[in-house]
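Memo subject: From amino acid sequence to discrete backbone structure tokens
Keywords: amino acid chain, backbone geometry, structure tokens, three-dimensional fold.
Body of memo: The sequence and its backbone structure tokens, given next.
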Amino acid sequence: MKILVTGGAGFIGSAVIRNIIQNTNNTVVNVDKLTYAGNLDSLLGVSSCERYAFEQVDICDASALQRVFQEHQPDAVMHLAAESHVDRSIDGPSAFIETNIIGTYVLLEAARGYWQDLVGEAKTRFRFHHISTDEVYGDLEGTDDLFMETTPYAPSSPYSASKASSDHLVRAWQRTYGLPVIVTNCSNNYGPYHFPEKLIPHMILNALDGKALPVYGDGQQIRDWLYVEDHARALYTVLIQGEVGETYNIGGHNEKANLDVVHTICDILEDFAPNKPKGIDSYRDLITFVKDRPGHDKRYAIDANKIAVELGWTPEESFESGIRKTIIWYLENRQWWQKVLDGSYQLERIGVESK
């Protein structure tokens, strides 16, 4: 297969590409605009492979997308390109409307035009896999409720509302035009190559630098945590085995309060990075509670039974094993995140644009 992956230089997208290149014989075409969250360093281990190609293209650019489809002739699309940081969506929602809604529409139209011209087996096997989030469901009131594939949408932030909009567009293109789509909604991802603005890498790097560890509100917001490499395996499984028109929720079976996550990070760092910055007795002493963000959902939790029963996927990592792997990766890969923190990783984007 030749798989077109949008947003392949991002956190989850790069994990998907690494998984495909390293564990299958398929070819990948990475379509990424290279916004601030796109980092080609995350793909250094696979970018020299002859089965990998990169196209610096904005999914809002219809003519560029048409060229990519015609030149590369993909058998499937895995759509991960999205603005995804809730805080940024609150501060400036326009980019989320543009990329997540308009971009998805433009991509759907490019894929539909391409798919309609296919014939025979090529048309039958084509798939459009849209990767979304559990945040489209809003939050859960009780301690035992779970998000299911049939849970009504109730997004709380500009980010989740834009993703909900994109989900609706994808399903409408399937019902109206027959485009063979599959949708997945995942819980919070974590792992290697995560952009430092997100909770877990932010806490790791701040702790190592002796900076405050800001926790929203009382830190009791609960999330289900999914190791990114488990998610990458799940997404490929859905692409290959999933049924057209179906939705699959993907979760890690690891519900944790944000404060507990931060405590765990601090405790593991005590073991693996005992030489703390000067004046710091305990990493936990760096925890600082800050004003909660507007519309902050209280609890997310995924029922991932459908993908387990129908497709045979379950996560390999517990939160305890996954967070240890994540922290060790950040300790052993300082060059990657130092380049992100000082902005030098973006020079690669300039180099690509100048070619």
DSSP finds 13 helices and twelve strands in the chain.
